[in-house]
Amino acid sequence: MTTETATEANVDLVRRAFDAFNESDLDATLAFLTEDFAINIAGMPYQERGLEAWSRNFRTMHDAFPGIRADVHDIFGAGDKVTVRLTFSGKHTREFLGMAPTGREVEYTSIEIYRIEDGRLAEEWICSDTATLMRQLAGE
């Protein structure tokens, strides 16, 4: 496989993973990840690893914001990495990080980098605009 073809395949892999996320399909989403998937989130004091940790984060978002969507605006790859700029949007109808449901529609941006290994997502680095998310939940 040429480098260009491999890069295109990696970009397509990330797109399909976000399609599964948008379908709220945890099992389909997990199929895109390696067993020891590494989670790096800006501001977190430690790295999380594994499918159970990722599942917990998935459930946190989908439980608090049923039907949450991730709309990809930009996506490109180089080597074994794919970078995505996207917007998450949804309605806060259940508890989120101890915050009671507000019924508010939210929308925030995230920049994410994924490392691909043997045709699966092996690691992510996420830098989301959580300050905007929290301001919207607070009604500011």
Secondary structure layout plus pairing:
Blueprint lengths: L2 H20 L3 H5 L2 E9 L6 E2 L1 H14 L4 E10 L2 E11 L13 E13 L2 E9 L1 H9 L2
Parallel strand pairs: 1-6
Antiparallel strand pairs: 1-2, 3-4, 4-5, 5-6
Pfam families: SnoaL
Protein name: SnoaL-like polyketide cyclase
Organism: Glycomyces sambucus
Key features of this structure:
140 residues, alpha+beta, Nuclear Transport Factor 2, Chain: A, 6-stranded mixed β-sheet, 4 helices, 6 strands, globular, NTF2-like_dom_sf
Explain how this protein is built.
By secondary structure, the chain is an alpha+beta fold. It has a single domain (3-138), classed as Nuclear Transport Factor 2, Chain: A, CATH 3.10.450.50. Helices cover 34% and strands 39% of the residues. It has helices at residues 3-22, 26-30, 51-64, 130-138, and strands at 33-41, 48-49, 69-78, 81-91, 105-117, 120-128. The protein has a six-stranded mixed β-sheet. The chain is globular and about 45 Å long.
CATH class: Alpha Beta
Overall number of strands: 6
Q: Share of helix among residues?
A: 25-40%
Which architecture name does CATH use? Answer: Roll
Order of helices and strands: HHEEHEEEEH
Low confidence ranges: none
Gross morphology is globular
Number of helical elements: 4
